[in-house]
Amino acid sequence: MNTGGRLIAGSHNRNEFVLINADESARIRSVEELSGQTCQICGDEIELGVDGESFVACNECAFPVCRPCYEYERREGNQSCPQCKTRYKRIKGSPRVEGDEEDDGMDDLDFEFDYRSGLESDTFSRRNAEFDLASVPPGSQIPLLTYGEEDVEISSESHALIVSPSPGHVNRYHQPHIADPAAHPRPMVPQKDLAVYGYGSVAWKDRMEEWKRKQNEKFQVVKHDGDSSIGDGDDAEIPMMDEGRQPLSRKVPIKSSKINPYRMLIVLRLVILGLFFHYRILHPVNDAYALWLISVICEIWFAVSWVLDQFPKWYPIERETYLDRLSLRYEKEGKPSELAAVDVFVSTVDPLKEPPLITANTVLSILAVDYPVDRVACYVSDDGAAMLTFEALSETAEFARKWVPFCKKYAIEPRAPEWYFCHKMDYLKNKVHPAFVRERRAMKRDYEEFKVKINALVATAQKVPEEGWTMQDGTPWPGNNVRDHPGMIQVFLGNNGVRDVENNELPRLVYVSREKRPGFDHHKKAGAMNSLIRVSGVLSNAPYLLNVDCDHYINNSKALREAMCFMMDPQSGKKICYVQFPQRFDGIDKSDRYSNRNVVFFDINMKGLDGLQGPIYVGTGCVFRRQALYGYDAPKKKKSPRMTCNCWPKWCLFCCGLRKNRKTKTTDKKKKNREASKQIHALENIEEGSKGTNNEVKSPEATQLKLEKKFGQSPVFVASAVMENGGLARNASPASLLREAIQVISCGYEDKTEWGKEIGWIYGSVTEDILTGFKMHSHGWRSVYCTPKIPAFKGSAPINLSDRLHQVLRWALGSVEIFLSRHCPIWYGYGGGLKWLERLSYINSVVYPWTSIPLLVYCSLPAICLLTGKFIVPEISNYASILFMALFGSIAVTGILEMQWGKVGIDDWWRNEQFWVIGGVSAHLFALFQGLLKVLAGVDTNFTVTSKAADDGEFSDLYIFKWTSLLIPPTTLLIINVIGVIVGISDAISNGYDSWGPLFGRLFFAFWVILHLYPFLKGLLGKQNRMPTIILVWSILLASILTLLWVRVNPFVAKGGPILEICGLDCL
């Protein structure tokens, strides 16, 4: 698609379509210059042939007719041209119809027996007109693995393999040889000689031998004796093949020596919990009944939360990928790559908060990824319509012409220049090219010049002109009004003649800013991602999508290949909706004070979910199957038919039939609901789905209306949505694609459709990622967790305390919104494909903010007990002591075993425990009240953050103090617990030796809270290389303790007061 390097802006609702010059030397061309020839019957664009010429149906008058209309006229009409009435001749590649000359010399073997359904619609014909189907003897059983269903009735002697083709191509199947002399491909006229068809001739034999050789190259199956199964589950019953046909990935279960003790300890901990609560409930504290009751309620809630978090980790697994097998299977020497195309989405909003240099590095790492350039397209969503982002992306495209060939020539890692040049590493390792050092220095200089240009753009954008921004040719920037602007699209790289400095093709780079108008709900990030789905569906329509945040660059250039090892696996790939990669971060302090790396979640919880139905979607670093985002159900596997015989009496068969009918009736409603979301391979083959009607077939018009109601009013996008393997219509002109692209990003396109409800990113929560993944799992899909040795993606995280708390606040707020919506996993999605342990994990992901209330109360109990002299536990007996020690011991050992099989350090585990308390009593608590106000009362509250200056230097952001209301609850807890410790120790010293025994339990409880809040205290007081501040604070605390002790003890006064005795002297 060549747009002449210009920005396309427009609004479908306002009927606006403008091509804006980005360069003064460019010339504005009309849209008609980009259009092609139009069919005079259906109005569609006429496709181009292999030679680049338009399709010609009639050789007499060349009346413009598209190929689908030509084939429909030959099959169903009068088989003649509408203009000159000349009978249509058969064109190579078209199926035969009655009346064709048998010896016209234009026959080809591939289409010899191409019998298609008479009810085939024009849209499906357009999609598959250029493909051939192998001839199949009638009556023979064809072992096929289709997208919608798997046929398990395939014998081990008749394996059928499917090679996933390139986008826009349908699957071709290899039919094993079945010897059946009685079967014929089609009835042949007995009066005609076989030589008419070419059978028996030398030419025919040569063609068949050539055809067999090609098929053997593509579908070679090597059978081995013995057991051919590998593993279990999704990897079962895989035939043993050569290296190029081996599975592309495999499961690596956790060693039994690690996982079995872990599972036994979980069961033991459940037993201990039961005994613990039995003791706690049957032994109340009468003199502190309220404290006892509150503590028991909190402990029961903590136990339920532990169960929700623990049992989804019952089946942890790891995975390995085989990139060499992927290359052997889909990248054969001397042939075009058959790897599937991938559309990459990058989202950004405000360039002043999300620096353009960071976004540029992310884009550069995508463009330089180790993947075929014609199979990668990068779409950047600018939801703020900022000219700064547009200009920065233009400079990025220019610098990519130098950076991309440099990375691929010398195998640079990572391929984000900022991180490549700043990392302290041996960049000469494994480099043998003599020109590498010279070219690296030159590239570093070019990148520094590029950074200066970006910094100049940022400095210019600090002050907005009164008249708004203008482009180079004087045209006003269409996005000057952020809340009211048309949609904008700019193709910077790809298919417009722009190549790199070595004259190689570059991946496509597209700038997209969706239309925004007042009065429309644009749904923030979820709405922007859905706009990118539609734009990419119109312009490239790759079968797979990768979404990354603007600050998450590709750290491993083979990340896409890692994902394709799962997605393109012929055995299990069809069931996978997305491949999730862990999030890794740069720029975090070594101690990871606020658990920014979140290692426990990514290395323990996610591995546990991978053993169930797959990990949850975490918002970035995820490769999707486009069809799964379109709301289709996962492919189902047929069950083997039950064995029947004729030896049973009729009455028994009648009873069995009634039982079968009852079962059919109970499942009929479920099947009817699933019918709407089945994979659509042919628009004309969708059943009515209503009970009691005949097996009628919908007309193409009714099917088109149904699809438009689901996907929107864009015929081009609707046609792309039903293509399982992606691809575009070959007869689409650039002008029509541009019009459709502007239409699908219009602000009213989603009205009265299923976007955001069943299709794409789901609306209704600020954490749209959890909701979107939950919907796909509810449709029966499974996901995969891929953890390559070199992290696939790396990003930046807020290491400052206040920023970290606000990040956690946003996540918790989204969970509260999901909990209060109809999509809550507690009551949504039953009867679908969601497994019960997977459901527990989703319930835990939306329930955890509610834990903030019992956690806050429980952390306040130690101070109350110390101040009042009461306690939540009665006098501890030997039995109670054993229970408490067993409970604490099981908690500690469970954590140790998790760290062992999850390969997590004890420091990361302890930081996670600390921040669970810090975030629970601050961000989670505020998110709970904010969510309740937003959902129930419609009140949207925000928490302001005030910054103060910080020192420069490494990790300087860690020591910036930003006051926010989120800091109030943990600060209060710290103060009251410290005061409680002071008062408790003072009281014990004052009351004597007997009071120290009961004090130890209260002090242990209080110190448990203080230790968990210690990183929070450091965040309030600590600064790098300035320890006197902490020393000063602790000195003040120590002085306070000594002062209170002095006042409380008072050594000059006896404990019971002054003792007065009669001295025996008469003073009077």
Automatic annotation (TrEMBL):
The chain crosses the membrane at residues 264-282, 288-308, 848-867, 879-897, 917-939, 960-985, 997-1017, 1029-1047. It comes from the Eukaryota. Pathway: Glycan metabolism; plant cellulose biosynthesis. Gene3D superfamilies: Spore Coat Polysaccharide Biosynthesis Protein SpsA, Chain A (3.90.550.10), Zinc/RING finger domain, C3HC4 (zinc finger) (3.30.40.10). This is Cellulose synthase. It is found in: Cell membrane. PANTHER family: X-BOX TRANSCRIPTION FACTOR-RELATED. Residues 39-85 form the RING-type domain. Residues 666-697 are annotated as: Disordered. It comes from Camelina sativa. Its EC number is 2.4.1.12. The keyword Nucleotide-binding does not apply. The keyword Cell wall biogenesis/degradation applies. CDD domains: mRING-HC-C4C4_CesA. It is an enzyme of class 2 (transferase). It catalyses: [(1->4)-beta-D-glucosyl](n) + UDP-alpha-D-glucose = [(1->4)-beta-D-glucosyl](n+1) + UDP + H(+). It holds the Pfam family zf-UDP. It is a multi-pass membrane protein. Keywords: Cell membrane, Cell wall biogenesis/degradation, Cellulose biosynthesis, Glycosyltransferase, Manganese, Membrane, Metal-binding, Transferase, Transmembrane, Transmembrane helix, Zinc, Zinc-finger. Its cofactor is Zn(2+); Mn(2+).
